[in-house]
Amino acid sequence: MTRYAASWAERVTLWAYGLVMSAAQPLLARKLSKRALAEPLYGRNIAQRWGYYADPIDSSPSASGSAYVWVHAVSLGETRAAAVLVGQLRERIPGMRLLLTHGTATGLAQGQSLLQEGDRQVWQPWDSPKAVARFLANFQPQMGVLMETEVWPNLIAACAQANVPLYLVNARLNEKSYSQALRFAWLARPAYAALAGVWAQSADDAQRLASLGAAVQAVEGNFKYDATPDATQLARGRTWRLGHKPVLMFASSREGEEQMLLSVLEENVSNTPMDKAHLAIKKIACLGVQLLIVPRHPQRFEAVAQLFEAAGLRVSRRSTWTQAPAEADVWIGDSVGEMALYFGLAQVALLGGSFAPLGGQNLIEAAACGCPVVMGPHTFNFAEAAEVSLAAGSAFRAEHLQDAVHLASDLLHHADRLEQSTQAALALCHAHQGAAARTANALSARLLH
């Protein structure tokens, strides 16, 4: 495996970065303790973040038949994408043992479903030299696979030193992240250049990655097109929507966007003086929709529900539903791992993270469920998918949330246009499948030969 020879200045930069990351460990521990108050998983096995494991193991092939194939999927979206790749790798690598790492509680919870006998799941090691060294010494993976954007300088340098080939797959690098990488080029370039191989989502991603020194092997597309929605959840959602007004979902809404929506609802729709709560209720009635809000982050479920309750709206939470959603002005999707249910329940979705300047969330998942999307101006995290979806007619763009709400409402009340967009979404996903299988072919070939 060809190694990138870092310059003296780059080695000094990496050394200084390692000192900073080591010094920051107490701050991370404090942050994790606070996060654990809302999401208890963050409080479990914190020592794993520093490379300490309660049950050190013999990970050699002679001990168990196969060394680990390590896959790092930082959060929920990456873990869902990794699930498709892991399934493809198991078909190609006999007796494969999976080492699965994550950085977030939602990723960890989702990843549990991917484990089989002999697999391990632990927290991603903090990117300090000692934590990374202990992680590699304990598990001795035969190959590492990083999902999408997870480029950590110390981790990559340590893998190169330990002769562990490390690959970046389903790789993306938007303009904002690219600009940041150029600002810290002495740190970023050696990291990208030391990767054993990179498979990019789009030609634009490939160009940016290659300019940073990454060994781009091919442009394969996005694994998320290969993910299959949970059929049971999807069917339940479609059953639950029966008997209700058309359902408009705010999918993976981010902080500040729910307040933006509330402000849209509180706009005057009548010459008759009334308080904001009545304005919002009347606006919802005028739109002729049932609102469903699904916040992106679980720690915000309570705050989002309280926001709409404080505005005088009737709120019903998913966590209280049994047989069907209760009557309310606003439904709150306060559960994790049920996006297929919510997309089945909705007929059109507003794309979270795209109305505030946050880059947007995954719109491919909506398309796979046959749910058209209306997105705002900020979709740089999923630029390729957004443009392809716009061209296919499965997504629409609005400059402001107010326009997006009216566009979505109009679509919901025109059955022919709604059906066209629904079918376009399903066709789009079918046409772009296969990226995970192609990447698995390339990875397994490198591992087995």
TrEMBL record:
It is found in: Cell membrane. It comes from the Bacteria. One of its GO terms (molecular function) is Kdo transferase activity. Keywords: Cell membrane, Lipopolysaccharide biosynthesis, Membrane, Transferase. The record marks 148, 224 as: Transition state stabilizer. The active site is at residue 78. Pathway: Bacterial outer membrane biogenesis; LPS core biosynthesis. Belongs to the glycosyltransferase group 1 family. This is 3-deoxy-D-manno-octulosonic acid transferase. The lineage of its organism: Bacteria, Pseudomonadati, Pseudomonadota, Betaproteobacteria, Burkholderiales.
